[in-house]
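Quick question, first post here. What does this chain look like in 3D?
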Amino acid sequence: MNSSNYTNNEKKIMVEETSNVNGYVKIYAFPAEEVPDYETYLKLSDKEKYLVGASDNTITTLGFNLIPIILSGGTNTFTHCAVGTGSPSGTALGTEVGTRISIAYKYAIQNEYHMDIFYGKNDPNTSSNVLTEAGLFNQLAAGGEMYCSNTISFTKSTAVTMVVAWLWSFA
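> Answer (accepted):
Ran it through. Tokens below.
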């Protein structure tokens, strides 16, 4: 049967039953002397050897609302990443630390949307370096809208730089 023979409600059900969005995040850690900035990270031939954590992330309701913008090629979505030492809720990080970092690089490849955030040796600028959470936000200042979050486990020091690489996959 031709899809034009379906009602709008039937088409909506078909899309909801066959669409899938997955969120994923990877944490890469580097010796600060070897990878001092994002441009050096991009030149690495084997990034995966620096992988220290990877897992699914939670996309919030606000995050799902951005999917049409992302799929239409829009980039006015996430702007900053934050890390913390607590546990994320559905709308905020539990204990955000340091200054939020701008998303260094956003790009789409087929059905995937990637966002990379580079943390220099002095980021986050806090004395607490045992990071247990990360999230994507729409502003530099604390607060704002959180679009996705993840529980992480990484000890950050000034001897280490790090990339938090988020991925949303649309299937």
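Residues 21 and 42 are 26 Å apart (CA to CA).
Residues 8-16 have pLDDT under 50 and may be disordered.
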